[in-house]
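Dig into what follows:
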Amino acid sequence: MTESADFPAPTEGILATLFITVRSVARSRDFYSRVLGGTVVVEENPCIVKLSNTWLLMNPGGPPTPDKPGITVANYEPGDTTSIFLNLRVADIQACYEDWSAKGAEFLTPPIDRGAELRCYLRDPDGYLIEVGQSTGLLHGEHAAKRPEDLRG
């Protein structure tokens, strides 16, 4: 039995969780718990890992079901594009970078100072992109520079 504070079941209102389709529940459970420090709430069917104030639900993909007719849950195909990713905000990005790297996380780059924040990215075992950021300038009103595509024409 899990502690009620660790289980994503609100007594009122709404609580958001993130479902990710994984090829190996055991491998992903290990990554999100051992490497990133999450708490395993349910081992599988679905696997639930509490990561700070967020719950990650993980299961393999599968065919349509009666409650989602015509919809197949497919494995993520990693590549050079993405449209959604997990964003983790941390108090000390350098400490996380060093700790998680020592546990096997492979970052795309070390943390980079972007003025408004320090930021870096890594991928989970299925190739999902994870942003790790520490607010710095944002805490004092400094925002990221506008990109040309953000400016009104």
Remarks:
- The two ends are 57 Å apart (CA to CA).
- The chain is about 15% helix and 25% strand.
- The helical segments are 25-35, 93-102.
